[in-house]
Amino acid sequence: MDLPAIGYDNYLTHSGVTPTGDGTNPEYAYNWRTDDAWTTGAASGYIEADMTTSHSPDYFAVVGHTLGTRSATIKLQYWTGAAYADIPEATATPSDDTAIMVVFTPVAATKFKLVVTTDGTAVTIAVASFGEVTTLERGLRGGYAPPPLARRRIGCARQPLRCRSASSLGQRRRRKSGGPDSAANGPRHLAPCD
């Protein structure tokens, strides 16, 4: 069974990594914004990441692109020490412009290159990333909704952090001091220490 995977680790944004590329504004591809985009050259384009130590990516993802419209192929390559070589399973030729995430067997190297080959027309890519995927230990049930945003972690210097709803914290403050706005309650984001 395939488990859910999250690709938020982006080697292009790590400190100490020097990304370079061709086309127009390649830096737009790794700034996590979808309102601007990197535009490749007419026939091809690339973004290269030169790292100081060996890394082992196992995914690449592209969002906000025109790869499908332009019949383009995108692939991740690694540096062998003498030249770039394709990473097996790390190639996509999408039929539409929906988000792409490709998970593959990790390959260790100090340089990686995301390469786009087009039909002769420039391609735009809003977000490109590659790195180590985070796999969830189990799937999520259908209809799952995240906990309410009103819940937060709170604590004090003598107690471990714990999760309480803002409404139950307010009830505790009223019981202890007579009101939620009393100065004796201390900062609103910390639970009073017993």
Helices and strands in order, then pairings?
Elements: E1 5-6, E2 18-21, E3 38-39, E4 44-55, E5 59-65, E6 73-79, E7 84-92, E8 100-103, E9 109-117, E10 124-131, E11 134-135, E12 151-156, E13 159-165, H1 166-177
Antiparallel strand pairs: 1-11, 2-4, 3-10, 4-9, 5-8, 5-10, 6-7, 6-9, 12-13
Descriptive notes:
By secondary structure, this protein is mainly β. The protein folds into 2 domains: 5-135, Galactose-binding domain-like (Jelly Rolls); 151-185, no CATH class. The chain has 1 helix and 13 strands; from the N terminus they run E-E-E-E-E-E-E-E-E-E-E-E-E-H. The protein has one helix at residues 166-177; strands at residues 5-6, 18-21, 38-39, 44-55, 59-65, 73-79, 84-92, 100-103, 109-117, 124-131, 134-135, 151-156, 159-165. The strands form 4 sheets. The chain has a 5-stranded antiparallel beta sheet with strand order 2-4-9-6-7, with no helix packed on it. Strands 3-10-5-8 form a 4-stranded antiparallel beta sheet, with no helix packed on it. Strand 6 (73-79) and strand 7 (84-92) form a beta hairpin. The protein is globular, with a radius of gyration of 23 Å. The termini are far apart. Mean pLDDT is 75; it is low at 149-194.
Oligomer: single chain
- Sheet with most strands: strand arrangement: 2-4-9-6-7
Give the class-level CATH name of the largest domain. Answer: Mainly Beta
Q: What's the rounded overall pLDDT mean?
A: 75
Named CATH architecture of the largest domain: Sandwich
- Report the count of strand segments: 13
Q: Please give the count of helices.
A: 1
Q: Which secondary-structure class do the elements indicate?
A: mainly beta
The shape, in one word, is globular
Let me know the CATH homologous superfamily of the largest domain: Galactose-binding domain-like
The number of distinct structural domains comes to 2
Contiguous runs where pLDDT drops below 50 for at least 5 residues:
149-194
**Strand/helix succession:** EEEEEEEEEEEEEH
Return the CATH topology of the largest domain: Jelly Rolls
Helicity, in percent?
Answer: under 10%
Ends apart, CA distance between termini:
48 Å
Q: Major sheet: size, sense and barrel closure?
A: 5 strands, antiparallel
Q: What is the CA-based Rg, rounded?
A: 23 Å
Residue fraction in strands: 35-45%
